[in-house]
């Protein structure tokens, strides 16, 4: 049985111009000890779907789901009190900007201790001991002295390590990393990704990596889910996705990578992601798609597992897998 | 080939006061950079944050004056009071969400450089603005709109159009695509390539994204803590990096190919504080090949084959 099973999740935001659908019927499944990557451009609903699951969205958001199950518990039915017991412990999340997710007014040690006290009921001495262990685990030198440091005294990479330590304090079954390295330099990014993957292996926890960087996906993920304008357009194993993408969006996105370019010109995708007022009927990618046909503006069918669950009437590379 | 910019041993030091009783410190943001930029070519400057690449951009655009060294623009010493020089070098900033004034219409944004630096009539200015908008792939009828009505990619095109208004010979591009989504990034890179081919512009392309640099650059200059550690033709540097830092930087860049197995050099530690850089080679605390010589004295940038490298133990 999977660790996380979300079916048909939709999130609507109440805006001045009516309802805006940020997440549109997304399914997310994650097994224990697996690395799932959710990739997409800004506005594809990748962060919002995770925040909806964690219950971190503001009241303007309306969340509907057929099923939202984590570790055998139905997240749509439980009370807020029960949810708070799960999030931060069994299910933890780290965010893009470590500097803005840590509280600048409190020391690193205090912020680490908070979750240890709340979820594990440790006393002061136990908390200190455990905090030092955690900081050591994420590779922070001289952890005893770092406990009394404030976030502004540490670099971006060190702060992200503190965030990871905090997320790991309750031995989570699922860690959600939302663009964990986007704000960091490449050499630091490599350190943090290596750390995340090695901790994931060691603790046998599931890792959901949200990113827009195809390079990061290729080097860390096992299974990849591609999102576009709030919809899940393709889901495949990482090698298959990069060699035989089935959805035209995935294929166009890969071709737009500078490192895959053949000539001076990059094959770019014309147009922009549809917004609130120019959402097309039928396939959302149709206005930008190079393979668009007449029936794309009507009903869109989801393809089988063999074709990457592509949400497309005319999937690419069909003959390869057939 | 005409030389657009020639810089020799450019330096910029900032003094920071440490408080009432402390000695003022000296940050060597840029500590000796020499390069030539030819018309129609792209020189990419790469490095991590704090390596001095944005300081370099500010010197070349004459926003700041160098502490030492000489900067020649088209054969004459750079002079920020010369209208010719101000016209010749223009800049595009990283974030199009903050580099355009939200209270100004696109018309005002595009016409302002003309109003300040030329004596064109209002009609000529409008005509020029419309032409430039078309050239970067924007619809001229959008000229009365405000920046918030455009997407990120379109805003970056507006910023590029603004830089083109004065017919510059050099464009300084300070991380022009790093705030953009992948599909939009490709569009903007294509526009830049087209403009260079059409107008023979020289680009000083500042970036930390090596896959973009590899695609667009003719020459590349790798910087670490204010110093140039390696420079040469992009194809040589990427194919056979000599400096251990360049090599580590290349191997740390994620490759969008899950099958390719490569050895990854993960650097330990972080960029040291520019207030008290390590003695000798600035990279020695993080370098796997560091010797006593590296800790004692700093290597000079020397020729090695086709490229220049500042290292006692080149790894190529």
Automatic annotation (TrEMBL), chain A:
Residues 6-254 form the ABC transporter domain. Belongs to the ABC transporter superfamily. Pfam families: ABC_tran, oligo_HPY. It is found in: Cell inner membrane. One of its GO terms (biological process) is peptide transport. NCBIfam families: oligo_HPY (TIGR01727). This is Dipeptide ABC transporter ATP-binding protein DppD. Keywords: ATP-binding, Cell membrane, Membrane, Nucleotide-binding, Transport. One of its GO terms (molecular function) is ATP binding. The lineage of its organism: Bacteria, Pseudomonadati, Pseudomonadota, Alphaproteobacteria, Rhodobacterales. GO terms for cellular component: plasma membrane. SUPFAM superfamilies: P-loop containing nucleoside triphosphate hydrolases. It is a peripheral membrane protein. CDD domains: ABC_NikE_OppD_transporters (cd03257). It comes from Paramylibacter kogurei. It comes from the Bacteria.
TrEMBL record, chain B:
It is a peripheral membrane protein. One of its GO terms (cellular component) is plasma membrane. GO terms for biological process: peptide transport; transmembrane transport. It is found in: Cell inner membrane. It comes from the Bacteria. The keyword Transport applies. PROSITE patterns: ABC_TRANSPORTER_1 (PS00211), ABC_TRANSPORTER_2 (PS50893). The keyword ATP-binding applies. This is Dipeptide ABC transporter ATP-binding protein. It comes from Paramylibacter kogurei.
């Amino acid at each position: 049985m999977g660790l996380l099973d979300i079916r048909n999740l939709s999130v609507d935001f109440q805006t001045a111009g009516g309802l805006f659908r940020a997440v549109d019927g997304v399914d997310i499944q994650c097994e224990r000890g697996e690395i799932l990557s959710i990739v997409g451009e800004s506005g594809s609903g990748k962060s919002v779907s995770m925040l909806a699951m964690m219950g971190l969205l503001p009241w303007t958001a309306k969340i509907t789901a057929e099923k939202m199950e984590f570790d055998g518990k139905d997240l749509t039915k439980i009370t807020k009190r029960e949810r708070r017991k799960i999030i931060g412990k069994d299910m933890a999340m780290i965010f893009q900007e470590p500097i803005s997710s840590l509280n600048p007014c409190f020391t690193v040690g205090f912020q680490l201790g908070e979750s240890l006290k709340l979820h594990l009921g440790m006393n002061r001495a136990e908390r200190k001991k455990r905090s030092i262990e955690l900081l050591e685990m994420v590779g922070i030198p001289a952890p005893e002295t770092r406990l009394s440091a404030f976030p502004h005294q540490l670099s971006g990479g060190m702060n992200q390590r503190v965030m990871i330590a905090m997320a790991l304090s309750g031995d989570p079954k699922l860690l959600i990393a939302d663009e964990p390295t986007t704000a960091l330099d490449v050499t630091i990014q490599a350190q943090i990704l290596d750390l995340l993957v090695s901790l994931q292996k060691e603790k046998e926890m599931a890792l959901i990596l949200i990113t827009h960087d195809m390079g990061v996906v290729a080097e860390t993920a096992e299974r990849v889910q591609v999102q576009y304008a709030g919809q899940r357009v393709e889901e495949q194993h990482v090698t298959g996705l990069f060699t035989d993408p089935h959805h035209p969006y995935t294929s166009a996105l890969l071709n737009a990578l500078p490192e895959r370019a053949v000539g001076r010109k990059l094959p770019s995708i014309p147009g922009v992601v549809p917004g609130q007022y120019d959402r097309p009927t039928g396939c959302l990618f149709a206005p930008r798609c190079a393979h668009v046909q007449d029936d794309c503006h009507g009903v869109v069918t989801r393809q089988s597992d063999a074709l990457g669950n592509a949400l497309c009437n005319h999937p690419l590379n069909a003959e390869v897998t057939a | 080939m005409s030389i657009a910019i020639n810089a020799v041993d450019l330096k910029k030091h900032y003094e920071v006061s440490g408080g009432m009783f402390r000695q003022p410190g000296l940050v060597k943001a840029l500590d000796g950079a020499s390069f030539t930029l030819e018309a129609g070519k792209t020189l990419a400057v790469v490095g991590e944050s704090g390596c001095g690449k944005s300081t370099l951009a500010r010197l070349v655009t004459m926003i700041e004056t160098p502490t030492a060294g000489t900067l020649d623009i088209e054969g004459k010493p750079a002079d920020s009071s010369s209208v010719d020089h101000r016209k010749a070098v223009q800049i595009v900033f990283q974030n199009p969400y903050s580099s355009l004034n939200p209270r100004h219409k696109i018309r005002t944004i595009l016409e302002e450089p003309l109003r300040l630096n030329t004596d064109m009539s209002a009609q000529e200015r409008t005509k020029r603005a419309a032409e430039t908008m078309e050239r970067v792939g924007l619809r001229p009828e959008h000229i009365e709109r405000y920046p918030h009505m455009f997407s990120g990619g379109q805003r970056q095109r507006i910023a590029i159009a603004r830089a083109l208004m004065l017919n510059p010979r050099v464009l300084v591009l300070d991380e022009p695509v790093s705030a953009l989504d992948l599909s939009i990034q490709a569009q903007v890179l294509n526009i830049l390539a087209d403009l260079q081919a059409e107008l023979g512009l020289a680009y000083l392309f500042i970036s930390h994204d090596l896959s973009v640099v590899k695609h667009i650059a003719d020459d590349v200059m790798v910087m670490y803590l204010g110093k140039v550690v390696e420079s040469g033709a992009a194809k040589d540097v990427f194919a056979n990096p000599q400096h251990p830092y360049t090599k580590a930087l290349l191997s740390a860049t994620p490759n969008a190919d899950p099958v390719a197995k490569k050895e990854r050099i993960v650097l330990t530690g972080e960029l040291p504080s520019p207030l008290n850089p390590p003695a000798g080679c600035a990279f020695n605390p993080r370098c796997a090949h560091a010797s006593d010589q590296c800790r004692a004295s700093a290597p000079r940038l020397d020729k090695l084959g086709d490229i220049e490298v500042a290292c006692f133990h080149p790894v190529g």
